[in-house]
Design brief:
Elements lengths: L19 H5 L8 E5 L4 H12 L3 E6 L2 H8 L6 E5 L5 H14 L5 E4 L10 E2 L3 E2 H16 L1 H6 L3 E5 L22 H22 L6 E6 L13 H6 L17 H13 L10 E3 L2 E2 L17 H15 L5
Parallel strand pairs: 1-2, 1-4, 2-3, 4-7, 7-8, 8-9
Antiparallel strand pairs: 5-6, 9-10
Helix pairs in contact: 2-9, 4-5, 5-7, 7-10
């Protein structure tokens, strides 16, 4: 095992129960331009709402523009929608170009979009869809808008999950050409999100850009749309009537809090490359599923994933 990041809580004053309202109290984002993938559903929509209410203009790339437009209509001209499909790099390139044409500077990038435990689906040149959507699409998009992020001294926030405990990167077969397991694939994608933020932060040294990854907590959102109710009952997440049964589950407001804290807290101004949970820096992985696995904060693995991602997408920082 090679050198890893130093992960230890910083006594932020927030915690598991903290809400979006708690972490955004007194935050002024007037003049800030933010990009939020998935910013029209679930935790992404909660994030968009709070960023706008704090004064930011939010750009929401969306695969389903009509549905997204209806979801954010109440926010008026403070939100701009662009079509983009994280599974289609050409569409991400077009979206990024339109954003760059309209805004020379981006101050905040939050990759909140994602899919979980999906049936096997191939996208692009045969990529496994969870790795493609959750990691490669965001990787390519950040590379495409990199100059604007540098001009904004931006924070880049990658939504990961405690699901990264399930799996390291399947280095010999990242696209599961044999033996597909939906949870292993999800775990790999979430590990990729952490490694991406770690290496991006390293590459960004001296630019003013900082990157973080995070676990938002367990929350019932549209992310679970590919799971049968019976599976969620078996996992103890919900009861037979569809109500939340796991007492550790968060509300949507609590679930979005860590991402909003990551995006706006001055406590993180001199930090970067860290994995966060419960509105604080996470510690090392523990038996209860909290914390971050050592393979997800291994700097050599982060560099290896970056090289693989450049080779697959043809994109890199420039």
């Amino acid at each position: 095992m090679t050198e890893t990041t130093t992960q230890h809580p910083i006594a932020s004053g927030f915690g598991h129960e903290s809400s979006s309202q708690d972490v955004m109290a007194g935050v002024d984002l007037s003049g800030i331009v933010a990009v939020v993938t998935g910013g029209y559903s679930g935790l992404g929509l909660e994030t968009t709402n709070h960023l706008v209410h704090a004064g930011a203009h939010v750009i929401v790339p969306a695969r389903r523009v009509d549905a997204a437009g209806r979801a954010v209509d109440h926010l008026g001209d403070s939100v701009t929608m662009f079509h983009a499909d994280l599974a289609d790099l050409d569409s991400m390139t077009v979206c990024a170009q339109r954003i760059r044409d309209a805004w020379s500077q981006i101050d905040l990038f939050i990759g909140a979009a994602g899919i979980m435990a999906t049936p096997l689906r191939r996208v692009g040149p045969g990529w496994e869809s969870q790795f493609a959507v959750n990691h490669l699409g965001h990787f390519a998009f950040v590379a495409e808008v990199w100059p604007a992020l540098v001009r904004g001294n931006a924070r880049v926030i990658a939504y990961s999950s405690a699901g990264h405990h399930i799996s390291d990167i399947h280095w010999n077969d990242p696209h599961f050409t044999t033996g597909y397991d939906k949870w292993e694939a999800y775990g790999q994608a979430k590990t990729a999100n952490i490694l991406f933020a770690l290496h991006l932060d390293s590459l960004a040294a001296g630019t003013g850009v900082h990157a973080f990854s995070l676990h938002p907590g367990s929350i019932l959102t549209p992310l679970q749309r590919h799971l049968a109710s019976a599976e969620m009952v078996d996992r103890g997440w919900i009861d037979e009537r569809g109500n939340v049964a796991d007492p550790t589950f968060k509300t949507v407001s609590q679930g979005a809090a860590t991402g909003l804290w990551a995006a706006t807290s001055p406590q993180l101004s001199a930090l970067g490359g860290l994995y966060l949970e419960d509105c604080d820096v996470a510690g090392p992985a523990s038996a209860d599923g909290s914390g971050v696995k050592c393979y997800a904060v291994d700097r050599d693995k982060a560099a290896e994933l970056w090289t693989l991602s450049v080779a697959l997408t043809g994109r890199d920082l420039n």
